[in-house]
Amino acid sequence: MERLGIEYIFGMPGAHILPVYDSLYDSNIKSVLVKHEQGAAFMAGGYARASGKISACITTAGPGATNLVTGIANAYADKQPILIITGETSTYIFGKGGLQESSGEGGSIDQTDLFKGITRYSKIVERTDYLAHVLNQAAKILLSANSGPVLLSFPYNVQKELVDASLLDSINTGIKHHPLQQRSLPVDALTQLIIDAQHPVIIAGYGCIKSGAQEVVTQLSEAMGIPVTTSLKGKGIIGDGTALSLGCLGVTSNGDAYQYIIEHADLIIFLGAGFNERTSYLWDAKLLANKKVAQIDHDAEQLEKVFKADVAIHGDIRHALSEVLEKIADSTAGRKNLAKFNLHTEALKSKASDKNPDDPQSKFALVKNFYAKLEANFPENAMIFDDNIIFAQSYFNVSSGNRYFPNSGISSLGHAIPAAIGARIFAQKPTFAILGDGGFQMCCMEIMTAVNYGIPLNIVVFNNATMSLIRKNQVQLYNNRFIDCDFVNPDFHYLALSFGIRHKKIVTDADLDDLFANSDLTGSINLIEIMIDKDAFPNYRSGR
Ligand SMILES: Cc1ncc(C[n+]2csc(CCOP(=O)(O)OP(=O)(O)O)c2C)c(N)n1
Ligand SMILES: [Mg+2]
Fold this sequence. Notes:
6-stranded parallel beta sheet, 18 strands, globular, binds thiamine diphosphate, binds magnesium ion
């Protein structure tokens, strides 16, 4: 782990993994004790997402490992490099019914099998004679461009075996494998498509962030006058609200980008964007109908996965776009005529200014104002983990200087708080975890992990005493037959007091002014409770 550059490991000990913990005692790797192993997996995910580095989790056999499952599944879907170390009963008692045995023998649970579908490599290391091979496999996957979680489970007796440390020298722990080092990518056809198009639109996704292509996307957009919309995970690739930004594309967004694409676009350029269910409005055929389609992705699996492209390039986005820019500079092509785009944005501005005060959206005025103040007070250098995602798509203009981390992966509740803690451990930046009260109660115990290690954090919880996404569906699709959506909240004031953190209840705009003027949002732990109406639903209709 040290050779892989792992600095932190998140987890909880148990007797079966104590030999590994004991060696952590003398190591440079810092262990972080969590409250629940799911939190460890989400923290490792948050750390990996913020840092781009390999992170790690450690648990005991049986329940310690099974508690990781949702967080690791999330990391798998997000292709995050996480090394998981778990304990196991000694091999010589396999199949006899050892405490917490998970070898799969004698009717015990099979941990390796359980993790097969959510890891890139999952191995119970029963002997040390093949350790070099196993570690090499693990390192190779963790360092690859399309990585994912790797599980190594060590039986207790194997943990105590001595091995020659020189075997580490045979393991490649240094080189990041980029399979995409083509000296010249096939970008001529793409350049020509861009030159020929009248109203091209870029759909930029998380792949742009992964390959550090934000700057070059902005350069291309500005040089040619190409409007940019992003997937939710790509929010902030070009600053929301900047001249050529079309905002977010997706079923839970305000729909502006969708409208522009349908009415005007003649070329769609996908850059590291997967076009999943939400981004594509359930693969709405109108979005791509009668348009040329181009795509660059570093992940071959994404190429033409859900559409046919006129040009599809497997390659590094930054590298490919730099080549496109050079070729365009050598050509006589000029900027696009942006008259239609300008009309579109003007129309939006006037639509926004005649908003009817009875509009259901005005019920979210407090939320909208919160996001406006967040943006104004933290224009750069903040990290925002968001499990709600619906409000941010409409109300939060993410500047390119901030990092916005919407709940992604398998969209699991219980993610924002631990993930934000993991990220804050990596970067000393103001950090926000934004989530609903339902999701809050799935992970609020991890606030004590932040308290335990003195990790500053702002937890923003929308208090509507319901799971409003469920309630909304029951209004829209199930004839107001409310079942299992409403609930009673704890008293957040006393909860915060008992945790030893600060609490601020937001009922009015004046409370928001006070929050941003007088609270320490960079160096302390704050629980910010924003009151919202349980019957005010975001302005979109669910497909199911
Ligand atoms: C682990 C998990 N369980 C269930 C769901 C399904 N789900 C999606 S949104 C939601 C309601 C969330 O309620 P809350 O956190 O209060 O947010 P609100 O919708 O009220 O803003 C549920 C249960 C999920 N995404 N993840
Ligand atoms: Mg709620």
